[in-house]
Amino acid sequence: MTKHKQWIFAVLTLALAAAPFAGVFFEDRGVTYAQSNAAAPVITEIPDEGEEALPAFGTTPLKLGSSGQDVYELQGRLKHLGYYAGAIDSQFGAKTKNAVTWFQWKFGLKSDGVVGAKTKLKLYNATTAWKPTAPKTSTANKDTSSGTAAKKNETAKTNTAELSSGNTMGLSENDLKIMANAVYGESRGEPFEGQVAVAAVILNRVKSPSFPNTPSGVIFQPGAFTAVADGQIYLEPNEQARKAVQQALNGWDPSGGCLYYFNPKTATSKWIWSRPQVKTIGEHIFCM
After folding, report:
1. Region Disordered: what ranges (predicted)?
2. What is the per-residue pLDDT across 75-107, written as a single tens digit (0 to 9) for each?
3. Cα–Cα distance, 84 to 163 (Å, whole number)
4. In 10 A of CB 122, how many CB atoms?
5. Distance between alpha carbon 76 and the CA centroid of its chain, in Å?
6. Strand ranges in the chain using DSSP code E only, listed in sequence order
7. Cα 75 to chain center, whole Å?
């Protein structure tokens, strides 16, 4: 009887000594559970090895002058949404900054052109279906694509030459280009006459002492053009927009000398309705 009690006592002593280290481990469908008498359950997910790994942004903020893999992904995602129309070259230049600013404005973020954590999260969530398609560029790629680059430069020179041919006002190449951007951003989808009229309004303001004396000054005057406010001024203009600028430079003014125009369906300014209206072309009313 005494030996029996001693055995029971020994077993109880060992059980009490081992209790703090006792643990039970389970594995179930890719999730490991660790349970202990001294701690709450801990869950660690095991990634599915068959899942495709896509690029993900790093933690470093991106801004003008940045380069590398994160910029490559940034440009790809912005292009996927239609905010970026340039080359995916992994270089954070002016076009990339403009696309970022436009995206930020559309999504209610601070439009500073800097891609921080909030912008990355918004962009990532908006482009979950995006996958890298454009090849990453390098110095070698740039060297082998010199023929394509030369052709693009030749096209750009041709477009500039066409715009300059009727340039009797002595406007700069940048002014002519930004006019084409403005016409495209403000009136694409309008009849050609309406696009020429928009270009003519810009030139009429340049000639007026009440406005800045350059197209760039007129276009970027605060609150003057919707395309500047919503970022569409930075979209690449098509051939029709360039031709509209050319016609206005050649002297065609379908607006009849107007200094203003507006879309009655979207206009929010009461003041614009007080201007003397001259004619309607497409969706725009042109006024003095």
Report:
1. 132-168
2. 888 988 888 888 888 899 998 998 898 888 888
3. 25
4. 17
5. 10
6. 23-28, 31-36, 39-45, 260-262, 277-281, 284-287
7. 8
CB 109 within 8 A of CB 123: no
1 Cβ contact list (under 8 Å, min separation 6): none
For residue 150, what are its two tokens? 């030369």
Strand (E) or helix (H) holding 39: strand 39-45
Cα 48 from Cα 51, distance rounded (Å)? 6
Among residues 176, 140, 150, the alpha carbon closest in space to that of 161 is found at: 176
DSSP string covering 63-119: -TT-BSHHHHHHHHHHHHHTS--S---SB--HHHHHHHHHHHHHTTS--SS-B-HHH
> CA 196 → CA 30, 126, 158, 199, 279, distances in Å?
64, 36, 20, 5, 14
What percent of the chain is modeled with pLDDT above 70?
A: 67
Matching residue, tokens 């002058």? 65
pLDDT digits (tens, 9 = 90+) for 117-159: 888 888 888 887 777 765 544 433 444 444 544 454 555 444 5
Residue-level pLDDT at 79: 87
At residue 38, the pLDDT reads 39
Residues across the chain:
288
The rounded Cα 206 to chain-centroid distance in angstroms is 30
pTM: 0.46
Q: Cα–Cα distance between 287 and 273 in angstroms, integer?
A: 9
